[in-house]
Design goal:
Chain lengths: 332, 525
């Protein structure tokens, strides 16, 4: 059966795009990260959380029209049934389920299956064609338990009471997840934020995700940050900004941190392997469980996942979507 | 093993030298014998296993992981050990691994046929960081940016003993170094080793900074010698036994019977191993025929006879003369030669020069007429100090040769560079054809690498796996040490240490060098 989705993720019968890199008349947005959610579309259909995130980041007028579609609700658009289902990646992140003349297509967007208190839990969807992400699509990526990684962080904090721990985190999603994991581990001290983190943390709290006592790192004298945890964007931790911290331990929370040689080369002293993406095992598990006969792979390391899918007897091919190049520096 | 894995990780990731020393000191002070001795051997690269080799590990893994997927992963990670640690697909109960001592015992005693099963079971049992440490240990390639010197510094730090005293006995002590730790902890005497028959760490030189150094150094304070293009050796002539050590302390006497069977006397000498007849050194290429071989066939010995050009003396008979000034040691050396004339040893000549410009001139002539690598400068008053002390010995290398060559092929790098086309094959004109003369992958900045990568992607004419053939339009100024005739290269020329000196974005390919231009470099050496 010929899919009704084009390879640039245009839903052909209705001329609507999923996560288009260029401004389009109508777009469905899986989640609020910049490589998926761009400003300037005519109409945006997304979950209420994603729309709130986009408005916070880009402004109220970043799209001509906002259309909220809560999880699980079906909407018929000229004969194509669209519904959004949790992807477990960040707050409001969705997979897009498209149904048309008996054919089911799922676009995963970015996803993970591990529990995360800051994102609605991943839902498995059966489909004929699966468009899957592949950020960590190599067998070397087997993410450890996030609770173990937080344990390593807390041990390091205890071992160096005279140093601040600064954790490089992407401002949307990763920062809130790390804070939430720390709270879950019983860490109730104030957590200090770089300015770029504040707005989105506030938004998470407003939308019902408790993050505990958060403070602006600028508001405290340098000496008081000894023994404390500070969250900052990865670009700031080696920048001049970090000079205001006492002898900081540079940590980065990212799935890329599993490769020690890389962490070493980039000067990261405490790599925390905490990822918001499916690892190699979850990617394969998901492809298998959806029952899809055809797999399109995008967003990351496609080769290995395509090779593996073909070994399983599936039809698999890469999508080379422009501007979808992720690198270790900008996991989102 | 858990503790050692944590130490390794900390050493790999902590940028601060002092914190590394602190961590090592603490580890050695709180770990019992013989575990800490084995750890020390691993950290200083003194441990290797007969049967456990990278290839064995690779085999174990590719039995469990599809080789294509393994290849893709290795390409991405760029480090074999780390790829294995990350890709291992089985995760067991993570019960405790054997202690370091037991583990090494296991590696040493398990037969070749049972080794794969042992390694597989260890990998499965290990927690993630232990698995990484385990693979590092088994392959012997730590790659954590730790020098043996730093580990020894930590030992000195822990005990308050003098680092140099420790260095002196280092090559005479054996695993698992219990007598060393006893001495360090004042529970025993300093290990007694036969000084005259052990390898002594060598004294090394620093490259000279022509602008800064020559302005402040007085020519009269320094002796100059040619920098020979062979390999540095320490020759120990003992009573009835001759040893020949490479710079790293490996005994290579077995590969040079023609040399060691034909020297005599009692001394510890420092010099350059060369091949050639009548003390006329052949090209490095010729010496290479005899390196990395366990035995030398009579034919090789006949064709490339080995000799040592001696330039320093550490022991005269049983007398340790290392504390003496260079000029006094030189006098000992010349006396000794007069008493012991040799067929396979000769003296490295001391050059006469009035001032730096005249030495610079000599150095230029030596390179052009005899292919000398440059000159060495030695402070006349300097004692023989192991390591690379500042301000005592300098090397002043010849200026590199340069040639304008045309980029032909580019290949992706490894590790950090796995997304960049960073390895370049370049060539020169031979008539209307371009023939490759070498390959280089350094000499450019990160910014230039980005530009080159982009240029390669935009100018690809064909792709063969990871290799791209490009339009023959970009010119590199390639610097190299001597060029030598080669039968393995289509061009008949092989460059030593080629590197990209400059990218000539401005230069048309038609103006690049020809193979005929290369002949002068061949004749010069």
């Amino acid at each position: 059966m010929k899919p009704f989705l084009d390879r640039d993720l245009r839903i052909a019968p209705i001329d609507v795009y999923v996560d288009p890199p260029q401004p389009r008349a109508r777009a469905i947005i899986t989640h609020g990260h910049a490589d998926h959610a761009r400003a300037g579309h005519g109409a945006v259909l997304a979950t209420p959380d994603t729309i709130a995130i986009m408005k916070t980041r880009y402004g109220e007028d970043a799209a001509g029209r906002w259309e909220e579609l809560p999880f699980g609700e079906k909407r018929d658009i000229d004969g194509v049934t669209v519904s959004l289902h949790p992807a477990g990646h960040i707050l409001g992140s969705a997979q897009v389920l498209l149904e048309h003349r008996g054919q089911r297509i799922v676009v995963t967007g970015d996803y993970k299956r591990l529990p995360d208190r800051t994102a609605q839990p991943f839902e498995l969807l059966a489909c004929d064609l699966l468009v899957t992400e592949a950020t960590f699509g190599l067998p070397v990526f087997q993410h450890p338990k996030p609770t173990d990684e937080i344990g390593r962080l807390l041990r390091s904090v205890a071992a160096f009471p005279e140093r601040a721990h600064v954790i490089g985190c992407y401002a949307l999603g990763k920062a809130q997840r790390v804070i939430s994991l720390l709270r879950q581990a019983g860490y109730n001290a104030p957590i200090y934020l770089h300015g770029a983190m504040i707005r989105l943390c506030e938004l998470y709290v407003e939308r019902g995700i408790p993050l505990g006592d958060l403070r602006h790192s600028l508001d405290v004298p340098k000496a008081e940050l000894a023994g404390q945890i500070v969250i900052a964007p990865p670009s700031a931790i080696k920048d001049r900004w970090s000079r205001r911290l006492p002898d900081p331990v540079l940590a980065v929370a990212s799935g890329w941190m599993s490769v020690k040689q890389r962490a070493r080369q980039s000067g990261v002293e405490l790599p925390l392997v905490i990822s918001d993406h499916a690892d190699w095992n979850e990617l394969r598990q998901t492809i298998g469980e959806t029952g899809a006969g055809t797999v399109w792979v995008t967003h990351g390391r496609e080769d290995a996942l395509i090779y593996w899918s073909q070994q399983q007897g599936l039809a698999a091919e890469p999508l080379n979507i422009e501007a979808y190049e992720d690198g270790p520096e900008d996991e989102q | 093993m858990k503790k050692f894995a944590q130490l390794l990780e900390l050493l790999a990731l902590t940028p601060s030298r002092n914190r590394k020393i602190e961590a090592l000191t603490q580890y050695f002070a709180t770990t019992p014998d013989p575990d800490r001795g084995y750890a020390l051997a691993i950290l200083t690269g003194a441990l290797s296993f007969k049967n456990v080799k990278p290839a064995v590990l690779r085999d174990v893994v590719t039995r469990e992981v599809d080789p294509v997927l393994f290849g893709m992963s290795y390409d991405y990670v760029g480090d074999l050990g780390e790829t294995i640690a990350l890709i291992w697909p089985h995760h067991g109960a993570q019960d405790d691994l054997p202690s370091l001592t037991d583990l090494i015992e296991l590696f040493n005693t398990t037969s070749k046929s049972e080794l794969p099963a042992l390694i597989a079971s260890l990998l499965t049992r290990a927690a993630i960081n232990e698995r990484w440490a385990l693979v590092k240990l088994a392959t012997g390639a730590l790659r954590i940016g730790l020098s043996a010197r730093l580990a020894k510094t930590a030992l000195a730090n822990m005990s308050g003993k003098d680092l140099q005293q420790l260095e002196e006995i280092w090559h005479g002590i054996t695993l698992p170094y219990t007598e060393l730790f006893d001495w360090l902890e004042d529970k025993g005497e300093r290990p007694d080793i036969d000084h005259a028959s052990r390898f002594h760490p060598m004294m090394l030189s620093n490259p000279i900074d022509e602008e800064k150094d020559l302005a402040v150094l007085a020519p009269a304070d320094f002796a100059a010698e040619w920098k020979w293009d062979g390999i540095r050796v320490q020759l120990i002539l003992g009573k009835g036994k001759v040893s020949l050590f490479s710079r790293t302390g490996d005994d290579i006497a077995g590969a040079f019977p023609d040399l060691v069977d034909n020297v005599f006397g009692e001394a510890v000498l420092d010099g350059e191993l060369l091949v050639g007849r009548d003390f006329e050194p052949d090209l490095f290429n010729a010496l290479q025929q005899r390196l990395n071989r366990k035995v030398a066939t009579p034919k090789l010995q006949e064709e490339f006879p080995a000799f040592v050009r001696v330039y320093d003396m550490l022991f005269d008979g049983g007398q340790d003369i290392r504390p003496l000034a260079w000029s006094e040691r030189r006098a000992h050396l010349e006396d000794w030669f007069a008493r012991n004339p040799q067929r396979r040893l000769d003296l490295s000549e001391v050059l006469t020069f009035a001032d730096w410009p005249s030495l610079a001139d000599l150095r230029r002539k030596g390179a052009a007429e005899h292919g000398h690598e440059g000159v060495m400068l030695k402070l006349r008053t300097s004692p023989y100090v192991p390591g690379r002390p500042k301000g005592l010995w300098f090397k002043w290398k010849r200026d590199p040769n340069v040639v304008d060559a045309i980029l032909m092929y580019a290949q992706r790098g490894h590790g950090k560079r796995s997304s960049f086309y960073s390895d370049y094959t370049f060539g020169v004109w031979k008539g209307n054809e371009i023939v490759p003369i070498g390959k280089a992958y350094f000499g450019f900045t990160d910014e230039e690498l980005r530009q080159l990568d982009k240029w390669v992607r935009n100018n690809t004419v064909a792709a063969f796996g990871p290799v791209r053939e490009v339009r023959k339009e970009l010119v590199f100024e390639v610097a190299f040490d001597p060029a030598e005739a080669s039968t393995r290269h289509k061009s008949g020329v092989a460059l030593r240490f080629p590197r990209i000196n400059r990218i000539r974005w401005d230069k048309p390919a038609a103006e690049a060098a020809t193979l005929d231009d290369m002949q002068i470099f061949l004749e010069a050496t």
